[in-house]
Every structure is written in structure tokens, then in C-alpha cells.
């Protein structure tokens, strides 16, 4: 069985390897292109203010990567040795691992339990809400979508911001990266359209990817297509796009493999 991973190229490798090891023909077909924000000055300014924040929430691993790309000093952050005591908030294991790669220490990271299987803003809030008291300052490091359409990240981060504000905290945002619909050549479009009806399983980790697929393949029907999605919101987007079979899975590899297996 062929499985198409639609995550950005930089995020696809672990899933491709796991699927290949399990005997699937795994292919990468990124439906979101990611790049650094065009406004590097805003990221530099956020770094200057970071010490005045009680926490920085990173909406994705890309938020970690591109925010730290704008770091102008070698001074550590999110460590016991740091001059500032700002904590790092993340919603899932991908962002958690990205923080560790840039030197953050576990004791300074707040995240949902890696074994719970729910990696979203609601799960993060359940972990950190007791920390947020009146005057608590949170910097939310996010991306922005260049072309039309909203992102799942936007829904989660805005919900999280409202919870902080309702608890008396203060929120500010900084855009560290940009997302954009990919530009496909005719061969890639033809390959995607063929995968709509040949038994391929599409794996989506964002609603934005589903919408981008529709835009890249205008007029293509998806009634015979199969999808595995990592959140209920993404499942709704896939059904609205017309996917004939949709399975919801926790965003961990074991659950993902089980969901793909169920579509055979």
C-alpha cells in the first residue's frame, strides 16, 4: 500500500522511515511550504523582550526552529543556568524535541504527557493553567499563512490566548515563520490526482494541508480517496473535501500505523 505524508519536508522524515520499516511504500508530498518570516526585526525584538515574559508558547516545531534562528546571542534560555527564568510551553513531542535540540532543559519545558496522545492547546492548558495568575506574561511564537486560508495553529493558539487572558494574564504574539501553499508542476498534480483513486492513504496533520490539496488539484473528486488525520478538526476538513474514508488517529506513530492498517 502506498502512503502519502503531506507534512512539510523538514518534518516528514521520521514518519517516512517508520512507514518504510513497516513495509509501506511511503512518499512525501508536502502540502505546506515553510520559510522564515520576512520580518526578522520582529523576532529580534521579541528576543529582547523575552526576559520580561513568564513563558513563551511555541505553536509548533517550526516556531521553535525559526525563533531560535533569530537568536542574536549565545546566552542559554530555558535552562537552570539562564539569566532569565522564562518557561517554554509546547503542545506536543515534536516541539518538545525541537526545544531540546536548541539546548532547552526538561525542567523548564511544560507540555502535555507524551503518553496521553492528546497534543493540542487544550491539553497544554490543562498542564499550565495553575501557573497563569493575574499579570502572568506569555509570548506566543507563531507562524502566518501567506495565501488564503486559516491554519489549525491559529485556532489553537487563539483559544490558548483567550484562556490566559481570562485568567488575568497578558499575551503578545510574534510571527517567526510563514506558511504557503506549494507550487506544483503538471507531473506532481497528475501524481496527486492519481492517488485520489488508486488505494493510496493520505496522512494529514493539518486542515490547511487538506485545503491546499484541493487548491492544487482543482476539480478533482476525492470520493474514492482514503485519509488518516491526526485531529478531529482535520477529519472534518477531509470529509468536507469529499474524502470517502477518513480515520482519526492520535499523532503518534503506533496509532498512525494502526489507522493506516484499518484502511486496507
CATH topology of the largest domain: Rossmann fold
The N- to C-terminal Cα distance equals 8 Å
Class by SSE composition? alpha/beta
- Which stretches are low in confidence, meaning pLDDT under 50 for 5 or more residues running? none
Q: What would you report as the Rg, rounded to the nearest angstrom?
A: 19 Å
Shape, per Cα inertia axes = elongated
Give, in spatial order, the strands making up the sheet with the most strands: 3-8-7-4-5-6
Number of strands: 11
DSSP summary: helix tally: 10
Number of domains: 2
Oligomer: single chain
Largest sheet: 6 strands, mixed
- The percentage of residues in β strands lies in 15-25%
Mean pLDDT: 92
Quick one: CATH class of the largest domain? Alpha Beta
How would you sum up this structure, described in words?
By secondary structure, the chain is an alpha/beta fold. It has two domains: 111 residues, Rossmann fold (3-Layer(aba) Sandwich); 146 residues, 3-Layer(aba) Sandwich (Rossmann fold). Helix content is 39%, strand content 20%. The protein has ten helices and eleven strands. The strands form two sheets. Strands 3-8-7-4-5-6 form a six-stranded mixed sheet, with helices on both faces. A five-stranded parallel sheet has the order 2-1-9-10-11, sandwiched between helices. The termini are close together. The mean pLDDT is 92.
Amino acid at each position: 500500500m502506498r502512503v502519502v505524508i503531506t507534512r512539510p519536508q523538514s518534518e516528514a522524515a521520521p514518519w517516512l522511515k517508520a512507514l518504510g520499516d513497516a513495509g509501506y511504500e511511503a512518499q512525501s508530498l508536502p502540502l505546506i511550504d515553510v520559510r522564515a518570516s520576512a520580518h526578522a526585526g520582529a523576532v529580534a525584538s521579541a528576543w529582547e523582550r523575552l526576559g520580561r515574559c513568564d513563558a513563551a508558547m511555541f505553536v509548533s516545531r517550526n516556531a521553535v526552529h525559526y525563533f531560535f534562528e533569530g537568536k542574536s546571542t549565545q546566552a542559554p534560555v530555558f535552562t537552570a543556568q539562564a539569566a532569565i527564568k522564562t518557561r517554554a510551553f509546547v503542545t506536543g513531542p515534536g516541539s518538545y524535541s525541537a526545544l531540546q535540540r536548541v539546548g532547552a532543559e526538561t525542567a523548564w519545558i511544560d507540555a502535555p504527557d507524551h503518553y496521553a496522545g492528546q497534543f493540542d492547546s487544550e491539553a497544554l492548558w490543562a498542564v499550565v493553567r495553575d501557573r497563569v495568575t493575574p499579570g502572568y506574561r506569555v509570548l506566543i511564537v507563531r507562524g502566518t499563512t501567506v495565501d488564503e486560508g486559516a491554519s489549525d495553529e491559529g485556532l489553537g493558539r487563539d483559544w490558548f490566548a483567550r484562556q490566559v487572558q481570562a485568567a488575568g494574564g497578558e499575551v503578545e504574539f510574534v510571527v517567526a515563520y510563514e506558511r504557503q501553499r506549494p507550487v506544483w508542476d503538471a507531473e506532481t498534480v497528475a501524481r496527486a490526482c492519481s492517488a485520489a483513486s488508486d488505494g493510496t492513504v493520505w496522512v494529514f496533520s493539518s486542515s490547511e494541508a487538506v485545503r491546499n490539496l484541493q487548491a492544487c488539484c482543482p476539480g478533482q473528486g476525492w470520493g474514492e480517496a482514503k485519509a488518516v488525520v491526526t485531529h478531529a478538526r482535520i477529519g472534518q476538513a477531509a470529509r468536507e473535501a469529499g474524502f470517502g474514508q477518513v480515520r482519526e488517529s492520535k499523532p503518534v506513530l503506533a496509532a498512525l500505523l494502526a489507522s493506516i492498517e484499518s484502511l486496507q
